[in-house]
Here is the input.
Amino acid sequence: MLRFLVRRILGAVVTLLIISAVTFMLFYAVPRDPARLTCGKLCTPETLELIRHNMGISDPLPLQYWHWLTGIFMGRDYGSYGQCDAPCLGYSFVNREPVLATIMDRFPTTVSLAIGSSVVFLIGGIGAGMIAAVKQGKTLDKLASSASLIASSMQIYFVGTLALYFFVYQWQILDQPSYTNFTDNPASWANGLLLPWLVLALIWTANYTRMTRSQLVEQLSEDYVRTARAKGLSRRNVFFRFAWRGAMGPIVTIFGIDLGVLLGGAMITEKTFSLQGVGLLAVKSVNTSDLPMLLGIMVITASFVVIANILVDAAYAMIDPRIRLA
Here is the structure.
């Protein structure tokens, strides 16, 4: 296990370096000059060069990337912007604040949205999938399959807008979605995020329902499951000890990746409910061509996905004893 983790961590570092290098080159090779946009109408060549120096974009692209990369580990001086201590992802072109500090300020909202919705769609999706698999071919199975197909066809911006109109404005059952620090007021925290949790979980629950059902149906038809039944084990014991355990592998794999993506920012959900998270920050950064902020969000999102993959692979050995990590 230790060798496996060391090998995967080294591979993850290489992967992140490649992602950061490619993303940096793509973002900073755009035809629009950020310094020119910042300089304004009355812009002299001297002022333009000073702004480029302060932004850290006066050098050739490979050298810019090297300075950005070393800044993560050793910090970097951005001229009039000030000293950026390690780990430094640069300064925003828009608000002139450190990129990492801005992302960390938005991060609790995104984490709360990701964790809360994950609990909802895991319980709902896996539970519905289990019922559908046990009642295969019966009314409950058909209802669960039909509902999951309809829900997976919906879009968050459509469902979210309807939910806001009816539950918040029309019926006034729920409060306007917002974020409150969990440690300050747990009840207000849950109440402000309940509607985004339910809307986001509605789409994802459908996927987990179908996946859980298909995996369990496949496992229940395996020879070792039929053998366990023939030996007289109870149906409940066979289901949870053999079929359910065998079906967990793909579910854990997909969930690990999904959670990594959600932690990187649920853009559409945050935009729909005006939640000041990493996803909404990414949308605003695109509109304002805030390249350092976009690069920082991209790297952090990729880091979550890579880490999630490592944890998922390690979890395989705990779930399925047939898998051995060399």
